[in-house]
Amino acid sequence: MTDIKNEMDSDLDQNYSLNSNADPKNMQELTIYVQNLLQNVQDKFQTMSDQIITRIDDMGNRIDDLEKSIADLMNQAGVEGSEK
């Protein structure tokens, strides 16, 4: 019995996914549609968040490399850098 319900839920999930043009006709279908919508939004936010964190990490690494390069150039030029 549980397998049949899971199959029906799976069919409903597919029929009322965000890419489907079918309108939900009852509360269960509406619930599944909203859950799919919220999951899709959450997935997109997670992807964007991961991308932002990666870019921030990359920027931090580039800034560290730039600071090291500037310190090296200052040492080569014989200029003392100010300590923080």
From TrEMBL:
Pfam families: HSBP1 (PF06825). Residues 13-23 have a biased composition (Polar residues). Residues 1-23 are annotated as: Disordered. Keywords: Nucleus. Coiled coil: none annotated. GO terms for molecular function: transcription corepressor activity. The keyword Nucleus applies. GO terms for cellular component: cytosol; nucleus. Its main location: nucleus. It is found in: Nucleus. One of its GO terms (biological process) is cellular heat acclimation. Belongs to the HSBP1 family. Homohexamer. Associates with heptad repeats of HSF1 trimers and probably also HSF1 monomers, and with HSP70. Association with HSF1 trimers and HSP70 coincides with attenuation of heat shock response and the conversion of HSF1 trimer to monomer. Negative regulator of the heat shock response. Negatively affects HSF1 DNA-binding activity. May have a role in the suppression of the activation of the stress response during the aging process. This is Heat shock factor-binding protein 1. It comes from Glossina austeni.
